[in-house]
Amino acid sequence: MGIVELIPGISSGTLALLLGIYDELLISIQKLFSKDFKKAAGFVFPLIIGMAIAILSMSSVINYFLVNHTIIVHWFFLGLVFGVVPMMFKLGNYKYEFKAVHYILIVITIVGMYFLSTVNTGVQDVTEVDTSPGVLLFLFISGFLGATALVLPGLSGSVILLILGAYPVVIYSISEFTSFNFEVLPVLFATGFGIVFGVIFASKFIHYLLTHFTYLTYAFIIGLLLGSSFPIYHGMPTNTVQWILSVLLFLSGLILSYYVSTKNNKETI
Fold first, then answer.
1. How many CA atoms lie within 13 Å of 230's alpha carbon, on the beta-carbon side?
2. Distance (Å) of CA 12 to CA 86, 184, 221
3. Residues 18, 20: Cα–Cα separation, whole Å
4. Using one digit for the tens of pLDDT, what is the confidence trace for 29-50?
5. Is the dihedral of CA 258, 260, 265, 267 positive or negative?
6. Contact at 8 Å (CB) between 84 and 225?
7. Engineered SS bond to 228: which of 83, 138, 151, 159, CB 3.0-4.6 Å?
């Protein structure tokens, strides 16, 4: 789940659902502030530690490919996105439950994601970070919103950070921290606290929506998933080698994502 959070396109929430731990994740997060804290912490904290190790160990690799092979890598991300779509429709039981209103919601969400993607569409080559109060507040809010993906199947937290323009800064900061540059700690703390508060809030809110408005919520998730292709798309390949690599990586991402999503498709919320 930690590695997935570094990749714009596939959600760690989706991965939790596919691994069969989604229900327990939502419930455990909510029970962290109850008398069942010990039991909930026994599930959540090892998960957090595993994700943290993955993020710290893989951030430099992800950052390198995003900066030096932007178009090719993002075609792989697009494959990951589209490969998850069939699973989301199946989980939503679309053949029997989806009506006109559900498809309208999907279209509206896709359109909304398109307009959001026009705000920030480029992955910047970040070489330094700003730790002014205004920037740290922005990163806190970005982390808060991005944390939704931890408990919302179908939407990547990295996509949210991409849309907001915070993704390059966060990835660069993690990469610098692993190189013992502690000047980026304010950025990581601000984003991290935002994520913590965001997970707590989102777990309660999304659990309520999925319980009381199950199929409308799935329609919304599908719209978010399809709409996330807009901020991920970074243009067409420019030469023969890029075309070949982009097509191969797109198909690889598509097959991998589809296989993982359908392998355990009997899991439901």
1. 18
2. 17, 25, 14
3. 5
4. 888 878 888 889 999 999 989 9
5. negative
6. yes
7. 159
Distance CA 34, CA 91 (A): 30
Joined together, the tokens standing for residue 180 give 């013992």
Distance CA 83, CA 94 (A): 17
Q: Which amino acid is at 162?
A: L
C-beta atoms surrounding 86 within 10 Å: 14
How many Å apart are CA 89 and CA 103, to the nearest integer?
11
Q: Residue 80: which residues within 8 A CB-CB, separation 6 or more?
A: 7, 9, 10, 253, 254, 256, 257
Q: Which among 202, 220, 228, 215 is positioned nearest to 150, based on CA atoms?
A: 202
pTM for the full predicted model? 0.70
pLDDT by residue (tens digit) across 63-116?
A: 787 778 888 888 888 887 788 788 888 878 888 899 999 999 999 999 987 887
Is residue 192 within 8 Å of residue 157, measured between CB atoms?
no
Contacts 24+ apart (CB under 8 A), 68-72: 70/123, 70/234, 71/234, 71/235, 71/236, 71/237, 71/238, 71/242, 71/246, 72/237, 72/242, 72/245, 72/246, 72/249
Distance separating alpha carbons of residues 93 and 50, to the nearest angstrom: 32
Where do the H-state alpha helices sit in 35-69? 37-68
Distance CA 25, CA 151 (A): 8
Q: Can you read off the two tokens belonging to residue 27?
A: 């419930």
